[in-house]
Amino acid sequence: MRQAPQIDMQRIERVAIVxxxxxxxVVHALPVSxxxxxxxxxxxITWITEERCAEMVTGNPYLHEVLTIPxxxxxxxxxxxxxWQEVHRMVSLLRSRRFQLAIDLQGLLKSAVAAWLTGAPVxxxxxxxxxxxxxxxxxVPKEPTSVHVVQExxxxxxxxxxxxxxxxxxLFIPPEAEERVCRLLEEEGISPPExxxxxxxSAGQPFKRWRTERWAELITLIDRQYRLPVVLVGGKADRPxxxxxxxxxxxxxxxxxGRTNLKELAAILRRSVVHLCGDTGSAHISVALGRxxxxxxxxxxxxxTSPYGQEHRMVT
Length: 316
Description:
- By secondary structure, this protein is α/β, with parallel strands linked by helices.
- The protein folds into 2 domains: 9-159, Glycogen Phosphorylase B (Rossmann fold), CATH 3.40.50; 175-315, Glycogen Phosphorylase B (Rossmann fold).
- The protein is 35% helix and 16% strand.
- The protein has helices spanning 23-39, 81-96, 109-117, 149-159, 175-187, 212-225, 239-248, 262-271, 281-288, 302-305; strands at residues 14-18, 44-50, 65-69, 101-104, 122-126, 138-140, 197-200, 230-232, 254-255, 274-277, 293-296, 313-315.
- The strands form 2 sheets. It has a 6-stranded parallel β-sheet, with helices on both faces. Strands 9-8-7-10-11-12 form a 6-stranded parallel β-sheet, with helices on both faces.
- Helix 1 runs parallel beside helix 9, helix 5 packs across helix 8 and helix 6 packs across helix 7.
- The longest helix has 17 residues, at 23-39.
- The radius of gyration is 21 Å and the shape is elongated.
């Protein structure tokens, strides 16, 4: 990777990383903060993200600060008074930090706008970016060997002269999240060091999901052959999936769907012996925590967005 011309990282102190969403994508981008801070310890790195993904970066020891954008407020439309109120608030907040470098890891118009609103004199985007490309004055060139999105994100760090190995995912779980999960599992009859299999039957888009009857069959198979407890996880919006799976199998499982926040979800995944899921964020949280993953992938490019690392398996 060719280093960025005329960017002296020793003269830059305040850096903004813009990665707004989604949960899995934010986790994929975490190694960039590690690479930059390890290579340039003097940097003060701020991560800009949407509120719903903030738990994935809070507690990251490589960050100086996390700033959140309330995504729902931006969806009212460009001419809605609340949108302009939020833009004004964000501009004031971002400009007060006096950023010198802004990095857009999202590649969308909204992230380009956020990077531009920082007021940073140096703004970096991707070579393939079309929306808002005019807002950047540095472009990261294409690296053909960077197939996985984690490596594509790390291309930005390499472009700035950072060392990117080893790849590290700094995902922090606070003690209170661990304690609540321990209590919830014990209430369901699972106590450490008893192992269990975690399953997330959902995905961000319906076309990425395995059919609920297949998940039900798998839970039945696990109960018959392995006698390991199964813990079902997911968000509140996934309750219908959990109920449908419950109706399709008589095998026991612990239903944690909609009962945890993201930090608590991570605590569950860290305790599981393996995580089974589709193309969804919990796969990448498990990778960040060093837990093995079996991912089910269909229409999406599994080489680009699969669980990162050699110890995980994909079914495509």
